[in-house]
């Protein structure tokens, strides 16, 4: 076994040993294959092509290419019409009526009708389909009606202010006749039919996914005919493949390669926020713990030098946060809610005020999905103000179970990725009384979260979220560290507009100049 | 001989069954995949519902019994990650894994054994010096280190070979040499020390006194006797290379079993872990069996024991 650090050391040594000059370090501006083809290096293998079943982190690499939804997100995360042309919400918020765009076809030629939409929703809710999206819809959907082939009505059991976003982010429409005719629910994953701008050509699991432009796509067609996604798990190998010109675009390049990539002529290197707050979750609802005291939580925030952590652990790719709502959501963040100042003296005073003049012992869980150095830095900063921190570094799978069942306390490092461009996902998950990842309770926050159930529309929801954000900041509900970013790099000749503020890979707008 | 063979095959089957049982239980102790699959919005009830669909809510003993019954039909369960039969997922990796393992082992044997013999025949000669240097690097540095250097030199700088991937022979060269070097180092050292011991033994001296040509002494009398431990070592190397090439598979994006097992454990894809371990155990015991039979051929004493 080897760690990322071993790799770093090896690369460093290799650079010295191999007298690696920079003579050849100019990437070829030409496409790896031709101007009809884009070759992409992916960080992780694609598992299942059933975007309704597989986890969102798996589907986010291909879902926007293969599939389409009634509404979708523009590049900034605002909901826009796609397969539907309009949506009407009833006054009681319990009925959503979508009008479908006429003339849409699936990859197999089937025309889109409201029956397909109804079938898709029912498939998600059916436990036998094992859909990971089920928890988003099963509790709220009362039924789906299809008054005519181009009208579909979702009836809700209770109002859900984020329903429009959930439909846009999770409900990738599949054809009823084809899907229900498959021998079993698992079969769709190997032979998916959607209505997105690309269709499946070939999937070599663990090696490559090849997609081909769907010429009957109703919308604007991408400028590149073929997409070839290569699975290259090792970060430095992905970067090397770009440097040699074998691939055109690298997804999730390692942050420590940012400098090398930026300095290489012929490449364009970009960072994209994923609207994910990296933070320390605190079990503040347990009155026996020091972290139940607001002053202690404030002290833990003031004791951290986030900027230094971003510089050293994240190679400068980060942005300190003052609350839990990412600045890259289309609404809800408040530029006036500033990050806490790094002030160890104040932190010590706050600890004294809280009754811990000599600090205390704290266990900090840290899963192996984020850098070990992050936990070490946090422990070191807290140690300086007297909070003796013991790091419990464990495997992500084991940690997930603890974290989902309220056993990762009193503190754990974690993050919450944006899935639907509405902050309800992280806010309710981490700070509502019933949140899976919440051990925090604040009646004011709780009341505002409840209010959001019946609050529809970006502007109105944004105002409520800004208020929640301020409350979470004032109460130091968690220890806020940084926004997370993904690093991309591609050849200069490629024109690509990426999906901002999200982990979703959007290749709908690509072309070679 | 037939009795010996039957006994060894029976032992092998018991070993494989034990291995599958141990892995079946252990992987379930690590965690529960529903925690990784479902979003945080999921409740415990949601997870339980999914566990039922996946057949994970029954007691482990019941699950294992069901697994054994399925196994009789060649069914190793479904991979939740790939929505495919676990055995298909594993079999898809067998080709690349065997190709890499066998090529690396062949490099190891073809480089390690002759170098070991040559340096044993003339200790401290120039061949011995070169061989020692190769062995030192091969054993001191982990294979992925050479892998990374190879990529920088031969792919990024010289542009002779592709950086990574699976396909024609051009993709095989760097990972096979990086891995094979490691095996060659061990094989060379073992061959050398065994040969040196055998070459000073009385029957070798006797053969020389009788006037047998030196070539025959070295390759027939000495090497055949020095070969037993080398054979054992090579067969163990096969197992190590097959499952332990994870770092090389990562560096070269090689679609092998090692990375598959590691990822499947990390994602708690029980069925794939079980299938991969079962298939590896079968292959490994088959190799061991073949080696035992080879022993019996090389050393008659084993045959009649």
The structure class of chain A reads: alpha+beta
Distance between the termini of chain B: 10 Å
Task: Tell me the radius of gyration of chain A.
Answer: 24 Å
Helical amount among residues of chain A, as a percent range? 25-40%
Task: Tell me, rounded to a whole number, the average pLDDT of chain B.
Answer: 88
Helix content of chain B: over 70%
Report the total helices of chain B.
14
Largest sheet of chain B: 2 strands, antiparallel
Proportion in β-strands of chain B: under 5%
Number of helices of chain A: 17
Report, as a whole number of angstroms, the end-to-end distance of chain A. Answer: 43 Å
Describe the global form of chain B.
flat
Backbone structural class of chain B: mainly alpha
Biggest interface in this structure?
Answer: A-B, 70 and 62 residues
Any idea of the CATH class of the largest domain in chain B? Answer: Mainly Alpha
Mean pLDDT of chain A: 93
Strand count, sense and barrel status of the largest sheet of chain A are: 10 strands, mixed
Number of strands of chain B: 2
Q: What's the Cα radius of gyration of chain B?
A: 24 Å
**Oligomerization status of the protein chains:** heterodimer
